[in-house]
Give the backbone structure.
Amino acid sequence: MTDRSSGPTASSIEETIARVRGCTQVLAVERVALDQACGRVLRESVAAREDQPPFDRSSMDGFAVRLDDASTRFRIVDRIRAGDWKPRGLSIGEAVQIATGGALPCPELQVVIREATEVEGEWLTVRERGPERCIRFRGEDARAGETLLEPGVRLSPGALGLLASLGHADPLVTRQPRVLHVATGNELVSPDLVPADGQIRDSNSTLVRTFLGQWGVTLRQLRVAEAEAVAHRAIEEAASGLGTLDLLLISGGASVGPHDFTADLLVRLGFVLHIRRTATRPGRPLLFGTRGATLAFGLPGNPLAHFVCLNLYVRQAIEGMSGVAQGGAFRSGRLTARFNDTPNARETLWPARLEITGEGVGLRPLSWRSSGDLTPLATANALVRIPPGTDLLPVGSPVRFMPTSLQP
Ligand code: AMP
Ligand code: MG
């Protein structure tokens, strides 16, 4: 059994994050189809191959006439739909009907919007003509050769739309990490079962799976009894089918109770433990270790501790592995409701609801009693740092916080 009384002392949030980041290596790359790329991290810079848009296009439904033509009555000499390519010159008194997105037939034209005209057969009368040319000019969005996306960007639906428009259909992204998650505890049953007396449903497996799912990361999951030998066998067996693991997450048993075997298990699996305790709550018992490039976390079983450790630390590992340029960081905001609680000697990560108000970013602390509480997690989208010894923070107090979802 490993000695739990000595070893590394409790580490602060910053120390823990730095340790995790320092041990994390960026994974290799692969090319994927656009449909597989949402949430993945781009690892190349992408430039426009052609001017965008590639030709002058009408931005409205209307009629193209010469810019220097002051006529009010025109003969309609052609009709251009989006997709047509009909280059031609226009004489004074001539107009071309053109649809939104249609290619202008020649330079030096203006599109008069349909609503400002009247049409009778092949004759057009312009009632009103403003200065607006209603043309998206070639290259006005981007010039050929211009870099539009940099490495380290997590690809959003908008970025994927841009890649599609550029014809960049197989972006180079970081390969997916190989992750194994093991929920331990004799009390746990699957969420679809009715627990017997003394049992509870396993909520952490869902939390872990969906947390990683935000970045499109899929993982292998196991639920094992609280017995080191059983867990050891199950992990070795599952891991052998996955190739070299990038990340092993073990829920529960991270503390110092008689049944808390995760530290011993990790050591037996060949991991060197770098962190055993943090100075914050919830999530004081936290195990972090490495075996070569493989990272492992032993997460305290309480759901709120899971929520905090996933957001604070596991997220750093995932972001470090994926090579994302800007990781989760603390930001500044103000409380929109007062904080009032019994002071605690440790810094606390408090679940909160982040809202954008007229005054900026507002944070409403949610109520929780125990780190076993799940109800505050349903609406939490931020974690607020409450300094040690704090009992009261009035409305408007400046606080540091971390958003817990990608889009708050
Ligand atoms: P442990 O870290 O194993 O000592 O567990 C601490 C608390 O978290 C206990 O009340 C456990 O029942 C609870 N817990 C552990 N694992 C889970 C899980 N997967 N889902 C929900 N609660 C859990
Ligand atoms: Mg347990």
Summary: The pocket of adenosine monophosphate (ligand 1) is lined by residues 183, 185, 187-188, 200, 202-205, 251-255, 260, 300-303, 372 (CB under 6 Å).
